Amino acid sequence: MTTGDPLIVLDGVNKWFGPLHVLDDVSLSVGRGEVVVVIGPSGSGKSTLCRTINRLEPIDNGTITFDGQALPAEGKPLAKLRSEVGMVFQSFNLFAHKTILENVTLGPVKVRKEKPAAARERGLALLDRVGIANQADKYPAQLSGGQQQRAAIARALAMQPKAMLFDEPTSALDPEMVGEVLDVMTSLARDGMTMVVVTHEMGFARHAANRVIFMADGKLVEDAPPAEFFANPRSERAKDFLSKILTH
Amino acid sequence: MHVFADPTNLDAYLSGFLWILKLTGSSAVLALVLGVLLAAFRVSPVPVLRGFGAAWVNIFRNTPLTLIIFFCYFGLFTTLGLTLSDDLDQNNYWLGVVGLSVYTAAFVCEAVRSGINTVPPGQAEAARAIGLTFFQTLRIVVLPQAGRAVVAPLGSVLIALCKNATIVGTIGLIEASSVMKQLINDNGDAVIPIFLVFAGTFAALLIPTGYFFGWLANRLAVKR
């Protein structure tokens, strides 16, 4: 795995939800091709951090740049930026009234104005890649959670994004389906996709991440390679967090 | 039933209900277009549009329809000189359509907006995340799924619109209720039969409408 120049840069980002300081002066740089896993206790701001990168959550101050450009505030430029950043949600959020294949081809056809036939061909190839090509004509509600999440990954990949954001992609899954989703993510990471992954899957963090970010109370507390972080967490908060999750 | 055996009365009865159907049809189309647009305004990220939509709903939903229809006649036509047709009946008809449409659009807007609120916010988030614009998100992802929740209340709005169309009688269009009043004046011995025929005709038109919308709502249901 090689990592290049910075693709996503957050500098001094602050955000409040009312009185709650949910992101407290967060600075972070993610290189091209880098896989950054964000972990931390619930309420630490890690999901919010992930969602600020494609501006699903606006920030109160600080700057976020993507591929050398400051995030646009709204309108067409923002829509264009979002089309270049794939996002995978905890609750899949597949379009309930569209088939799996339509979910995957919607963005390419409506946003990129690709020919439906070409989008369909690439969509089928992507569904094949995530292992659900035989589900293409079903509706989301007919699929298992793991299949839905893999479809959601294919939908994001169909836009040929420069980076992928994963917001707790396995947290809503039954345990036996976590593996199939993590396998897809691991293969993406191996192919050099730039990824920011908010997760509780420590195994994935260990073997697929270049860096682990530990957040607590809205602050970025630690930023280290996974081996170092898991072997020698520096902060008390991280030690405490790891002791709670790794002893089980 | 001797009243309706008279061809003149039968013609008046039929033409009265024809006006009601025409008022309902034209106003329904205009109110639907206007109402969906207003609902889009009310959920848009632009504060000016949201304010416009809210103002429209608050003004027209809270003004009696009779006042709005009177304003269309005495305000728009008599005072401001807005003439929509040279034919007197056609002019009253179109003034009535304007009044019914702006009024009903407020109710359509609220029905559509509450339907939009039944679509999980994650659907719109996912749509924005792949780069769809606000209006694409609404048109391609949110509104089609709001369908089930919107269709049944829209049916109620349509039924109310049809009955409200009788208010256009107050500005001189000889629609069904005006015809009924006239027939009752002329036939004091048959008040109740006349009344029942007119009420029954409305029921015969509107009860199937209600069932149709219920059936449509079930057909449009989205599985989750």
Mean pLDDT of chain A: 90
How far from one another are the termini of chain A?
A: 31 Å
Helical content class of chain A: 25-40%
SSE pattern of chain B: HHHHHHHHH
Shape of chain B: globular
Residue runs with pLDDT of under 50 for 5 or more positions of chain A:
none
Strand tally of chain A, please? 10
Low-confidence parts of chain B: none
Number of helices of chain A: 9
From the alpha carbons, calculate the radius of gyration of chain A and give it in angstroms: 18 Å
Secondary structure category of chain B? mainly alpha
Tally of structural domains of chain B: 1
The CATH superfamily of chain B bears the name MetI-like
N-C termini distance of chain B: 54 Å
Order of helices and strands of chain A: EEEHEEHEHHHEHEHEEHH
Q: Largest chain interface and its two residue counts?
A: A-B, 32 and 21 residues
Number of strands of chain B: 0
Class from helix and strand fractions of chain A: alpha/beta
CATH structural architecture of chain B: Orthogonal Bundle
Word description of this protein:
The complex is a heterodimer of chains A (about 250) and B (about 220). Chain A has about 250 residues and is α/β, with parallel strands linked by helices. Chain A has helices at about 45-50, 75-85, 100-110, 115-130, 145-155, 175-190, 200-210, 225-230, 235-245, and strands spanning about 5-15, 20-30, 35-40, 60-65, 70, 85-90, 165, 195-200, 210-215, 220-225. Chain A is globular, with a radius of gyration of 18 Å. Chain B has a single domain (about 20-175), classed as MetI-like (MetI-like fold), CATH 1.10.3720. Chain B has nine helices and no strands. Chain B has helices spanning about 1-5, 5-45, 45-60, 65-80, 90-115, 120-130, 135-165, 175-185, 190-220. Chain B starts with a helix and ends in a 5-residue tail after the last helix. In chain B, about 40% of the residues are buried. The mean pLDDT of chain B is about 90. At the A-B interface, helix 2, strand 6, helix 3 and helix 5 of A face helix 6 and helix 7 of B.
